[in-house]
Structures are given as structure tokens and as C-alpha cells.
Automatic annotation (TrEMBL):
Quaternary structure and partners: Homohexamer.
Residues bound to a divalent metal cation: 65-66, 104, 328, 332
Nuclease as UniProt keyword: no
Stated name of the protein: GTP cyclohydrolase 1 type 2 homolog
The UniProt record lists the keyword Metal-binding: yes
Keywords recorded for this protein, A-Z: Metal-binding
Listed GO MF terms: metal ion binding
GO cellular-component term (any): cytoplasm
Amino acid sequence: MNTVAEITNYLNKIAPPSLQESYDNAGLLVGDPSKKVSNVLITLDVTEEVIDEAKAKNCELIVAHHPIIFKGLKRLTGSNYVERTVIKAIKEDIALYACHTNLDNVKHGVNAKIAEKLGLSSLQILSPKKQQLAKLSVFVPNSDAEKVKEALFEAGAGQIGEYKDCAFESAGTGSFRPSENANPTIGSKGELEKVNETKVEVIFPVHLKSAILNAMRKAHPYEEVAYYLHQLENDYSEIGAGMFGMLEKPMDEVAFMDYLKEKMNLQTIKHTPLLGKKVQRVAVCGGSGAFLIKNAIAAKADFYISADIKYHEYFDADKQLVIADIGHYESEIFTNELFYALLKEKFANIALHLGQTVTNPIKYY
């Protein structure tokens, strides 16, 4: 039987917590990491009713998209729904885990799920994040260069877009003099040694730094490894906010709105005026996405699909695209299917339950 920690650590590898936004609070929020888990409830939000559903289904863990705790709780007196929900989870011994903006910011996350529902292809991140890449330069004896490279690739280094196992090598001569306390692989204590070496350079995501350095040290023959790291300013095409892609065939705007309602199971769509153009290039952002309107325009999207757009933000469409606000809950509810698929692939011995409690606080009349 797997533990809470094993399940949450796996999800943390899929969407590293270091990728969450500064205001967020993703991760294990309530519960004992060592607790055994046989049943997991998957939900968008956690409420008191969701805790009741989890208890009824004998779930030891709830995996949610939205954290029930956004800010630090100074007391637990049951004075509001957040405190009551946390108290109930503790009483029922049900662990609460959230994977939020870190899942929004990975290429295979929330926005990819929306794109899948809409049948979009040729997907790209709408606003790639900067300072998410680093470069490692390490000096290796020629005979061990391939071994070290393979270890780095296995740990996640050397991926640039659709290209894997990317590295640059240059030849040179390394020199060193081992001290009397050293245990040199090559050379003798107190004597200057010169070795034909290869400088291997690879790019990697910064959240993999520890794994990359551990792999390097394990594969490298030297007692002391000569290497250095550089932070890069390059955009990282695998990490960032929003996504855009292409419909298989152009559609007129009204037909696309009907298609959108069908695929996303919508009751209504708030939108800016239609422009009388064909729709093929579509940008999406699950949840609150007004901050990406300019990015969607820059990407030459015909439609931008998101939620929580304020009145004055609709004007930012500026007749260059159509903004479609489909609702926060509606834009992210299929994240549950994403969690289900990820956990089913890894944990065949755990019973997974898609939450049946409708947590959407917004109703339509």
C-alpha cells in the first residue's frame, strides 16, 4: 500500500512546487505523509461537503486543484468555511493536497487539458517563464565523457524543445595537484598532473538542479568535480502561463461558440463582440487569465478562452480577437480527469474516485 508522501511526491515531480506563483500555497496542506492510502478522492475544490464525500468513500487523501488554505491560519475556531473544512479533515484523518499554479505552469498541465478538449494541435506556451533554465559546464576525463553525459540526460538535462540529449563538448587540458589528504583517481599526491579532458555543457530546468548535480557526481570519476553553473535568461518553452494552438479546420465564430459550449459543457459564455472572421488559432488559460490578453493578441489568436475577466478588461480585446469568459470552475473542472490519468498510470493498486460534489459557487438563472 502506498503512502500520502509517495503519491504527493509523484505529483510534485509532474508539477514541481517551485513553479507555483508567489501567492499560491500548493502541496500537502493537512495530514501525515506516512499515512497509508487505499482510496483517493479527486476534486477541483475542497469544502465540508467534499470531506463528507471522501469519508463516505473511505478516502484517506483528497487531491485537489485549488488549495483550501491560501494564507496562514492564525486560529482554528470554525468561524469560516476554510477553518471548518480544515477541522473536519483533521477530525476525519483525511489528508489534503493541492496542485495549483504549478500545474497551470507546466506544458502538460491544466491548459493542455483544455486544449485537448478543444482538439487543438501545435501547442505552445502563451507566456513562457524566464530564469527557469541553467547551464552546467563540467570537466571530465575524455574516457568518461560519454558516461557523464548519459547520466545527465537520464536526470533530465539536455532537453531543448522537441530535441533531447543536447550537449556541447570542447576538448582541453586540465591540470591539478592533489594535496597530501586527497585520494586522487588520477595522479599522485603532491605532484602536478595534466589530463586530456572534455568540457561537457548542458542546459537543464532549475527545479532539477539537485538531481542533475547528484547524477553528475555519481557518474564522474574524480573525487572533486570541477564544474560551474550559469543562470540563463532564455525563455523556457516548457514552463509558463496559458497556451495556444490550432483547430484542425477553420470555423466561423458562431459555430466555434457552439463547439466551445459542447466541448467544455458550458451553460453560457460571456464574450466581446464577434469580428466576422474565421477561427483557427485559439489561446486558452484555465482560471483567472486577464493578465494574458495581450499575450493572446501577440500570438495572433482569433479567440482567447479564459475566466474572471473584469468589465474594463474586455476592452483590451481592441477588436483584434474575441475574448470568451467561460467561468473559472468550467475552465478548470476537467483538471480532475488529468489528475485521474496521472495517478492511474502510476498507482494501479489505489482506488481513484472522481469527486461528485459540485463545488461551483456560481449559479445561473
